[in-house]
Amino acid sequence: MYHNIWLFIIFIGAVVLITKPLGLYIYNVFHGRKTWLDWFALPIEKSYSKLVGVTLKKEQTAKEYLLSLLVFSLFALLFVLVILMVQALLPWNPAHIQNMTWHQAFNTAASFVSNTNWQSYSGETGVSYFSQMLALTVQNFVSGAVGIAVAITLFRAVARNNEATIGNFWSDLGKAVFWILLPLCIVITIVYVFQGVPQNLMAYVHAHTLSGAEQVIPQGPVATQEAIKSLGTNGGGFFNANSAHPYENPTALTNFIQVLSIFAIGAALTYTFGKWVGNTKQGWFILGVMLVLFITSLGVMTYAELKGIPGQNNAHIFDLYGQTTHLANMEGKETRFGIFQSTLYNSVATSASDGGVNSVLDSYTPIGGAVALVNMALGEIIIGGVGTGMYGFLLFMLLSVFIASLMVGRIPSVLGKRIEASQMKWVMLGLLISPCCVLVFTAIAAVMPDVSSSLTNSGAHGFSEILYAYTSAANNNGSAFTGLNANTVFFNVTLGLVMLLGRFVTIIAVLMLAGSLVGTKRAIDSEGYSLLSTTSVLFGVLVLFTILIVGGLTIFPALSLGPVLDYVTF
User: Fold this and answer.
1) Can you tell me the distance from the alpha carbon of 430 to that of 396, in angstroms, rounded to the nearest whole number?
2) What's the pLDDT tens digit per position in 143-178?
């Protein structure tokens, strides 16, 4: 057991260790400074500039930036939708996979464009190699890059003083892909291939077992998708079993690389922000608060799975005195990973906006499943997705500053930027759109007469499956309890809408907030205007309570009808 605890310590240490160098590299990339990857990225950026036909150095206002982002995302949505609906006619389809229905294609397109990667299909039977590479893997890159770009605009807005522009969307998108995501994924892909992850265009292998049965072994370009799946906090699996499949995640090393990849860029952006605003202590403060929440969730989830539930989902033996001794809950987990590597993966994935799993969440204990739900319901800000975690956390931080300033009678300001009532409206829109989508659509689904036929379980656990689906969709996570058959018209359409609302309404709020902040003059400490410290332990406690109250209380009543009731009725 102690060596497994060391696994957690080494992981957290590795996250902290890479935060500064990677964060500094990202800072240099977006400031146009010379980097050691310019030889690789600059030629690609020049070709990209000609392709999109825009001047990358010309900055945009918030509205112009938002319009470019929405037009690009709409084109991407239609592009993926069309490919999935005609994939049977396209090349690289050795398994002769048929076209998707319109509603499943819409759900999948909305999922990958919104960086959610929710899947109502099985990868090895639902999409061709062509669709995997040109539609889905490409969106893994650009949807992650969009998240990074939006976070960078907020960094600029806080750092700049009385200006009108927040950057150029096309430039930020290219920098995120060509300097950050693409080169890192090339390295990770090579490592995966050497670890046994397939990367080919072969037809599926038909093998004959010793008992005389025939087994179909899927193939495909797996390694390339696996690399960006984790690094871009996408989570969509090439196979239905996701990272529990030995082709996607064959060894303990690939498991560790995946969980570290999920947190890498999200953690690094905390240092990038601190460097950008001239206060690296602020960046370390943000990372510290995030890690407190993560360590808490990891500890509770691991303890719940180690303890199990008496008589339910866990092995038990009788000791010499006839007393029942309960062992850890291993149902739905890979024996090659065990409890610790499973809870580490799933705690990381639900803390970030990554839907990858290496064990079945539907088989977790009610408390273990509730932790995953809470991780997502807080807004995916515990490190969070690439970019999305940082701008989500900054929304909570701005709300905390506003509350604290009102309590002590100071003018609300963060890092010298005064916070006005109009800006708080954008903050609240960004924070409340996801829980509103979760609660409204979960309530509708719970009373729909046809939904019960999609559930593997009834009662509290069945409600948990519905609640988890909409929480995952609204917060752009993409993981599932797997006990829900989501491939119906109702679930495909409603979950697709929730994914788009949770992603793009939040982005609208963040970009409008950035446009408002960038034009604000920077204040200084003076008599009658004392700036609030946003790096103190006391402020850290306030931020934690704000996250738990605003993010948590919206979901706690629903949790009482799902995982909590599921636990007490066992």
Assistant:
1) 10
2) 999 999 999 999 999 999 889 999 999 999 999 999
Evaluate whether 267 touches 284 at the Cβ level (below 8 Å). no
Taking the C-alpha atoms of residue 368 and residue 377, their distance in angstroms, rounded to an integer, is 14
Which parts of the chain have pLDDT scores under 70?
1-3, 309-326, 523-531, 570
Q: What integer pLDDT is reported at residue 452 of this predicted model?
A: 77
| Token pair recorded at residue 167 | 């950057």
Query: Can you tell me the distance from the alpha carbon of 512 to that of 173, in angstroms, rounded to the nearest whole number?
Result: 18
Three-class DSSP labels, 477-504: CCCCCCCECCCCHHHHHHHHHHHHHHHH
What's the alpha-carbon Rg for the chain, to the nearest Å? Answer: 23
For helices 252-276 and 138-159, the axis angle rounded to 10 degrees is 30
What pLDDT is attached to residue 530?
A: 53
Predicted local confidence at residue 379, as pLDDT: 84
Per-residue confidence (pLDDT) for residue 3, from 0 to 100: 66
Round to whole Å and give the CA distance between 453 and 461.
Answer: 14
CA distance 469 to 474: 9
CA proximity to 111, closest of 469, 406, 419, 476: 476
Continuous segment of H or E residues that includes residue 16: helix 2-30
User: Contacts by 249-256 with C-beta closer than 8 Å and gap 24+?
Assistant: 249/358, 250/195, 250/196, 250/197, 251/195, 251/196, 252/336, 252/337, 252/341, 253/195, 254/191, 254/192, 254/195, 254/197, 255/337, 255/341, 255/345, 255/358, 256/11
Q: Alpha carbon of 501 to those of 28, 428, 439, 506: distances in Å?
A: 32, 15, 13, 8
The pLDDT of residue 317: 43
